[in-house]
Records
---
Amino acid sequence: HHISNHCIIADDEKGHDLDLFCVPRHYENDLDKVIIPHGLIMDRTERLARDIIRDMGGHHIVALCVLKGGYKFFADLLDYIKSLNQNSDKSVPLTVDFIRVKSYCNDKSTNNVKVIGGDELSNLAGKVSLSDIVETGRTMETLLSLLSECNPKMVKVVSLLVKRTPRSSGYRPDYIGFEVPDAFLVGYALDYNEYFRDLSHICILNDQAKEKYKV
Ligand code: IMP
Ligand code: MG
């Protein structure tokens, strides 16, 4: 039988009506469905924290946040890791770093992945890189080759979401929160041209909104 190490959101997942959850007024007409409610994101993130701590042993972790889309996931995952660290006999020292990548325009990946920032990239501790979503895999592959030039002891990639898409390079992160259908998702810091980061739930953007916020 098949053991999966992440939650799978099926292609025919109906999601939830927007009216059943709290969604900002200014986005009411832009979204189709709530596909991953905030509470479910948090519950899954709590478990990822436990799995990561279990696997990292006593290594010092440099948690690298891939901005901007990864900021919510980063903050919430680190809160769960901190909570494990302060409530058990074993604990893992943790420092943080931030890097910014940009590759998207409208709902399409451009072939050009820009990387900005990151001050501790050359430090030799184990790194855990935290990202919002992997689609083609290009962003993470670019980042990983950049990190490998600094010879870190180990690098693990955690991505909240991985998209099932024929555009994927085949790249898989070490830890995955949810595998999701091939749709454009927003919320929980995932954006469409910088909008929708201020939405708690992960939702499917409708076509009308893609036009409305197009650049
Ligand atoms: P990749 O390089 O194709 O794997 O794309 C990864 C990056 O594209 C992510 O870090 C996001 O910034 C962006 N991205 C890909 N799919 C989505 C989506 O459905 N919603 C919002 N951003 C996305
Ligand atoms: Mg983006």
---
Amino acid sequence: MLRALLLAPPGAGKGTQGELLAKERGVPHLATGDMLRRHVAEGTDIGKQAQAYMEKGELVPDEVVNQLVGQAVAGDTPLDGFVLDGFPRTLEQAQLAYDWGQANNRTFNAVVSLVVPEDELVRRMLARGEQHGRADDTEETVHRRQLVYEESTKPLLEFYRQRGILTEVDGVGTVDEVAARIRAAIDALSAD
Ligand code: AMP
């Protein structure tokens, strides 16, 4: 059963590819950004705590995010398989996810890093902001989010490389091309 994490900078196509991969493998797609945006739209307590951070392009505090993911991944009936998109995003979250996985015998078996040059990321995010009106796809926030990724999330690549489950995939191309590369990379990991 696939337990995968998509680890990539904002704008790399995690959401699109995560959804496709999850559908193909018959596992749920858990995207913390989508979950948080739903909470903000519905005005829940979690949404109220998260909104200001999201608008500025900062990370939402771990306690808030852990609550969202914890129940699904490590609650009373932990999921056998999943595609996580957007969590973990800090080393603290990664350690927690690992502890959950160990406790339930369900650690990740694939971490897919989508590699896209920064100028392409910025171009995609600004286009997405214009098309879909995402509140955090603005000129100021886009750069901040790239920096937050570099500082807080990129170190996770090394964490997973050391565990032997990291695979790096070229994220430039059509949706189908990238999806095919991800599929091949995951198959190669499981064949090792
Ligand atoms: P995304 O849709 O994955 O780009 O996430 C949008 C925003 O949600 C991020 O810029 C953060 O503010 C927040 N967010 C999503 N996932 C996390 C996470 N694991 N930890 C902290 N903040 C998160």
